[in-house]
Amino acid sequence: MALNERAIRQPAESVLATNKVLRNTYALLSMTLLFSAAAAAVSVVMGVGHGAGLISTLVAFALVWFVLPRVANSAAGIPVVFLFTGLLGFGLGPMLSYYLAMPGGSSLIMTALGGTGLVFLGLSGYALTTRKDFSFLGGMLFVGMFVVLLGILAVLVLGFFGIAVPAAQLAISAVLVLLMSGFILFDTSRIIHGGERNYIMATVALYLDIHILFQNLLHLLGAFGSND
Amino acid sequence: MDNWMLILNAVFIVMILVFLYPRLKQVQKNTRKASSQEWLNFAAIMGVVVLFVVFLIMLVRG
């Protein structure tokens, strides 16, 4: 009898813990997305250049690599997440300014933003409602990410020798859109099935999925969107 | 893009690769094998994403 009660209680406690992580993750994610958007707007208004944007992105990643693992289990992790997302948002400024200077650039950005939101809500909602386990995607997604990063490195090295490969950049963006869609399923599924119990780390993972998805969707729409 | 930015970008990508590699090994070791039905389901979801992106491109082209 006592064994049965324990067997029932444990899954119930586990579901409650999962729901708490989910609720906290989505609450923090929505706040950090708004904060990031505000930082991007400030960056556009200030007319920040590509160099400053790149440095801002580098500092954001340094925070995630060196600071966040030490504070992720305490309340100090929350300001670090805000700083991280704010810096990444600020780093988006030069890209947004570039598209805003194009004819119809603002509608392009809004379409990419809306598209990113719909892809995220659709995929995350799908993983949440079906409660399917997408943990099998992990190996493929990480290998895919590794290969794409090597591809980006190759494009940068070619760029250093004055060789531009726009087709490769577009192919990389298209693959990244698919990879980030897969990561949204994978990361949401990890929270649901107890693979991620820390809502701060879960927020950072989902934020990065959304951030990279938006950047690359905007790149694709900017490249294919014109009739020229 | 200036050369210093290209170099900084390249250093950044190398750092991501260095940080990603141990995680990649760990995830590869712990990833479960999926059934063909699960892969089919995932392919269908990705198909919907591709169609949605094509729709967005057509929307922007007007």
What percentage of the residues of chain B does DSSP assign to strands (E)? under 5%
Number of helix segments of chain A? 7
Question: Tally of extended strands of chain A?
Answer: 0
Q: What integer value in Å does the Rg of chain B equal?
A: 19 Å
What's the SSE pattern of chain A? HHHHHHH
Number of domains of chain A: 1
Shape verdict of chain B: flat
Model regions low in confidence, pLDDT < 50 over at least 5 residues of chain B: none
Mean pLDDT of chain B: 93
Account of the protein in words:
- The complex is a heterodimer of chains A (228) and B (62).
- Chain A is an all-alpha fold.
- Helix content of chain A is 85%, strand content 0%.
- Chain A is built from seven helices and no strands.
- Chain A is globular.
- The N and C termini of chain A lie far apart (74 Å).
- Helix content of chain B is 87%, strand content 0%.
- Chain B is built from two helices and no strands.
- Chain B is flat, with a radius of gyration of 19 Å.
- The model of chain B has no long low-confidence stretch (mean pLDDT 93).
- Chains A and B meet through helix 2, helix 4, helix 5, helix 6 and helix 7 of A and helix 1 and helix 2 of B.
Helix-strand layout with pairing:
The complex is a heterodimer of chains A (228) and B (62).
Chain A: H1 2-46, H2 50-71, H3 77-100, H4 105-130, H5 138-160, H6 166-192, H7 199-224
Helix pairs in contact in A: 1-3, 1-7, 2-3, 3-4, 3-7, 4-6, 4-7, 5-6, 6-7
Chain B: H1 3-30, H2 36-61
